[in-house]
């Protein structure tokens, strides 16, 4: 009987002990799981980057599409996040959203207060304040000879583009959307240091089938003399586009925040030609261009000075169509060649003192219509491209990428940005020595000259390991290979 009782007691106790142990182990496992404090798009930034080893000084921060709009945070969490990002050289951006006014204003003001408290630049995304002039209202449509209204759908059916001379009544709506946020910031005693917009498929645009649509439009024919001349058509439309950007965006920002840097995606000084096409753009036969193998670089209007912007924003992306434009066996050079052309174009024609904030992207954008295979730009040569951009005038990068690409893209760009800070004086005060891009794969050299010294980067496509001569300040220097490194050479 006693033995039987002991056995039953054992059967009762053991499961209880095992359950307790399991519970404790479960608790230990849960305790070891990392606590994620931030939204996923913010957390990926922190996970993919490290605190800076070199002081950023007065240089612009790195901008990332993911380091934007962290959501509802209290004062303490906001300050913690701003500090963590700043330790990595990254500027947190808040958005002004007219469709969600009160919440977006409250969040952007909270972030701005923390940034000012920490003596950091206040960064704002004003994109949604500029949309949309072409909002679907039939009053903005083209009008044909029979009085029928019609749209130009060549930019996508979700972007019905109308008459560039029918937008005046939309101006007060756009003006009010921006003024709401500007006024609130002024009343809160806050300044703004960096304002950008991604205003693209809206307002007057001359490409795709816009020229053909305007020829059909009675109002366009009345307002554009010599409409058959594409150059004249381009000039008139770009002047209208510049006026809208200047009067309803750039000037209000600069008037209220005199020290602010203000700009827009894809607007920058250039040679008169643009070497890239956005995803919604295509070439139409007969439009003026420069031909480079199968590439057609379109004649572009000098819109930067007329827009009133204070920083340049070139777009240096791996557009899928680039891959078929050139026949280089080294496919990395197809990407590198075109993208460095874009960056060099901006660097060469932007006045000293005007910051260049270059939009960059690594993963290939657009699938090829033919379905042919496109070989991805290598990580190594993409980072080399970023170095050459910095040595040709780019002041900082603004990385755009999709959610699934974020971890790797952020890592690649941040590594270059962070390492380059060791050459801060050259980057801030140096003068670019070279804007040429070799027509054939070989050796590419870029550099910044400062006080008798030159910071150089040499990147080789091919097997050459011989010294390459380059003329700098009336001297001929031999530059030896130094893979994945910068060199500082004395001119004395």
Quick structural summary:
The protein is of the alpha/beta class and 492 residues long. It has 14 helices and 19 strands. α3 packs across α4 (101-117), α5 (171-187) packs parallel to α8 (230-256) and α12 packs across α13 (406-420).
Name some characteristics of this structure.
4-stranded parallel β-sheet, 15% strand, 14 helices, disordered N terminus, 492 residues, alpha/beta
Describe the structure in your own words.
The protein has 492 residues and is α/β, with parallel strands linked by helices. It has one domain (37-430): TIM Barrel (Alpha-Beta Barrel). The protein has 14 helices and 19 strands. It has helices at residues 2-32, 40-48, 75-87, 101-117, 171-187, 210-216, 218-223, 230-256, 304-307, 322-325, 331-349, 379-390, 406-420, 424-429; strands spanning 63-64, 93-95, 123-125, 142-143, 149-150, 194-197, 261-264, 273-274, 289-292, 295-299, 315-316, 357-360, 396-399, 431-432, 443-450, 453-460, 468-472, 475-479, 486-490. The strands form six sheets. The protein has a four-stranded parallel beta sheet with strand order 1-13-12-11, with helices on one face. A four-stranded parallel beta sheet has the order 2-3-6-7, covered by helices on one side. Helix 2 packs across helix 13 (406-420). The longest helix is centred in the N-terminal third of the chain and has 31 residues, at 2-32. The radius of gyration is 27 Å and the shape is globular.
């Amino acid at each position: 009987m006693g033995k039987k009782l002991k056995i039953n007691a054992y059967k009762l106790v053991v499961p209880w002990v095992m359950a307790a142990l399991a519970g404790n182990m479960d608790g230990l496992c849960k305790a070891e799981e990392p606590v994620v404090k931030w939204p996923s798009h913010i957390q990926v930034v922190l996970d993919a980057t490290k605190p800076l080893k070199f002081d950023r000084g007065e240089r612009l921060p790195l901008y990332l599409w993911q380091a934007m709009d962290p959501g509802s945070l209290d004062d303490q969490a906001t300050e913690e996040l701003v500090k963590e990002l700043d330790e990595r050289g990254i500027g947190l951006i808040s958005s002004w959203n007219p469709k969600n006014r009160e919440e977006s204003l409250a969040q952007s003001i909270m972030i701005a207060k923390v940034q000012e408290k920490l003596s950091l630049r206040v960064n704002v995304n004003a994109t949604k304040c500029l949309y949309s002039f072409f909002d679907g209202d039939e009053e903005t449509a083209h009008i044909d000879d029979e009085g029928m209204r019609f749209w130009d759908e060549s930019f996508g059916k979700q972007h019905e583009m109308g008459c560039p001379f029918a937008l005046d009544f939309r101006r007060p709506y756009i003006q009010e959307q921006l003024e709401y946020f500007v006024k609130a910031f002024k009343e809160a005693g806050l300044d703004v240091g960096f304002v950008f917009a991604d205003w693209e498929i809206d307002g007057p645009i001359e490409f795709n089938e816009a020229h053909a649509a305007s020829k059909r439009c009675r109002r366009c024919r009345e307002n554009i003399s010599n409409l058959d001349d594409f150059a004249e058509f381009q000039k008139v439309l770009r002047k209208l586009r510049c006026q809208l950007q200047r009067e309803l965006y750039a000037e209000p920002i600069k008037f209220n925040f005199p020290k602010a840097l203000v700009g827009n995606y894809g607007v920058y000084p250039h040679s008169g030609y643009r070497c890239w096409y956005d995803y919604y753009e295509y070439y139409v036969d007969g439009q003026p261009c420069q031909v480079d193998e199968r590439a057609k670089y379109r004649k572009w209007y000098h819109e930067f000075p007329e827009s009133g912007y204070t920083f340049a924003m070139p777009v240096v992306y791996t557009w899928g169509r680039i891959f078929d434009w050139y026949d280089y066996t080294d496919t990395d050079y197809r990407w590198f060649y075109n993208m460095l052309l874009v960056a060099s174009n901006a660097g060469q024609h932007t006045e000293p003192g005007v910051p260049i904030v270059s939009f960059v992207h690594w993963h290939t954008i657009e699938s090829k219509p033919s379905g042919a295979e496109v070989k991805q730009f290598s990580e190594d040569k993409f980072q080399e491209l970023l170095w050459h951009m910095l040595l040709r005038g780019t002041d900082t990068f603004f990385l755009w990428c999709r959610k699934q690409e974020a971890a790797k893209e952020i890592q690649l760009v941040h590594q270059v940005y962070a390492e380059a800070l060791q050459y801060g004086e050259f980057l801030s005060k140096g003068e670019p020595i070279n804007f040429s891009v070799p027509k054939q794969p070989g050796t590419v050299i870029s550099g910044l000259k400062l006080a008798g010294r030159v910071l150089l980067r040499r990147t080789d496509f091919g097997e050459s390991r011989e010294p390459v001569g380059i003329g700098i300040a009336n001297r001929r220097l031999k530059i030896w290979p130094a893979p994945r490194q910068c060199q500082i050479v004395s001119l004395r």
